[in-house]
Amino acid sequence: MTTRPDAWILRDSGFLERLRDDERAAFRRICPDRTFAPGDVVFREGDPADAMHVVARGRVKLVRTTPDGGERILGVVGPDDLIGEAFVGEGAHYRLDAVASTDVVTCPMSREQYRRLAREAPRFVESFTEMLTENLFRCRDRLTEGHGPIRGRVAAVLIDHARRFGRDRPDRVGWVDVDVALGHEEIAAMVGATRVSVSTAIAALRREGRLEGTRGRYTLDRDALVRVAEGTETDA
Predict the structure, then answer these.
(1) CA–CA separation, 226 vs 140, rounded Å?
(2) H or E segment to which residue 36 belongs
(3) Could you list the mean pLDDT of each consecutive 10-residue stretch along the chain, which spans 236 residues?
(4) In whole angstroms, what is the distance from residue 18 CA to residue 124 CA?
(5) What is the pTM of this model?
(6) In what order do the strands lie in the sheet with 211-214?
């Protein structure tokens, strides 16, 4: 892991777009970015929650160790996502592991840095609160999705990755290429299902023409999968 004092590199962040130039400059000056190589640990479960990270580039998997020593992936985050929100509480600890899946750049912000930003760029607090609120809504949406049919829950994971990490196909309107970078067992842990059930759901989506590809690299019909995820289309 390295720490660089140069400018925050994120270009298309909705977070930074909310800030004025002077507030953005303060953010860059007070909160230098950090880089992580694949496999590097951003933070560990049980470590003091001394900073929150805004992900600027790359993907970070959120992991919890199972009783048998295995690894359960709870989610994958990317640009504009927040991790380590527990930093706001004195004496708080991180509740899971955050591990870089790719080359990653984050902006870690400690409580003291947050206080400095509040003094030097007051509107920063408003923008930051908006981001926390949006993050909370996303978490609530995922909890709601966790009670639906497995096929819909799998579709929701694929759509979420397509929205954040996908690339529109220029030759096929409405289709998106996405590297999920997760195996069926990992998706199963995220949606609370068995690996066999996830494999069956993905095979069904592929058979129905809503999904193509395998081994975590897919091309998907975005609108069709959204309908499956929302439950507005009946299971086959």
Answers:
(1) 17
(2) strand 34-36
(3) 38 58 81 92 92 88 81 80 80 89 90 88 77 67 62 87 85 87 78 84 90 85 88 62
(4) 9
(5) 0.65
(6) 167-168, 175-179, 217-221, 211-214
